[in-house]
User: Fold Shikimate kinase from Ephemeroptericola cinctiostellae.
Amino acid sequence: MSKKRIHSSLPITAAQQALFADVPNISLVGLMGSGKSTVGRILANTLKRPYFDSDEEIVSRTGASVPTIFEIEGEAGFREREAKMIRELSEKQQVVISTGGGAVLREDNRAALKAGGLVVYLSTTPERLLVRTRYDRNRPLLQNPDPLGTLKKMHEFRHPIYSQMADIIVTTGSGQVSQVAMHIIEAISKKIAKDQGLT
Ligand SMILES: Nc1ncnc2c1ncn2[C@@H]1O[C@H](COP(=O)(O)OP(=O)(O)OP(=O)(O)O)[C@@H](O)[C@H]1O
Ligand SMILES: O=C(O)C1=C[C@@H](O)[C@@H](O)[C@H](O)C1
Ligand SMILES: [Mg+2]
Assistant:
């Protein structure tokens, strides 16, 4: 049976929608389980923008799952595919991009995402990330006896990188994913108003 997808969108006003007319790409970065794929889809549906998920694009083009690519080509092979994908997706216009959690590790990826538009970092604690990812076998880097330890190390190393490149940082907690998407829309709206000198 094929996986059922939720294509929910949020009610925003025409005025709010209009504010986004000149906003370039919106790219989501963050650790595994931070909500990039789930929130990105809602954000794209709400803003009526095309949606791309770098992991999903790699999987659909290779015909192999992320764990299979890691198994056959190693992490290095996956990162090469990811870099090509990030470059390609970043060149699109006014789309929403959910990146893979490790895409920010390469300077060329960071530069491409920044050049393409706004970068939003979905931040949360390793403990919460573990809760969200623990039953999913699709993340090869967490398939070890101490996934919390791995998430803590990744958080320590990557949090400064995500934070430094982000235009907007959204801390996610126990709220729903739709609230996170709305929070992003509000934060970008505020940034536009500020950049235009309206506030
Ligand atoms: N803010 C949130 N509140 C509750 N659940 C969440 C939240 N964000 C994400 N989740 C849940 O966590 C799980 C993982 O989310 P998702 O796949 O979107 O993460 P991701 O950032 O895309 O991870 P990856 O880097 O591995 O692709 C999903 O089941 C999603 O519904
Ligand atoms: O954080 C990471 O390094 C990864 C995150 C996922 O999105 C996938 O891109 C892959 O599992 C690696
Ligand atoms: Mg994802």
Observations:
- The chain is about 55% helix and 10% strand.
- Helices lie at 14-19, 36-47, 54-62, 66-90, 107-116, 126-133, 147-165, 177-195.
- The first helix runs from residue 14 to 19.
- The domain at 23-177 is CATH 3.40.50.300 (Rossmann fold).
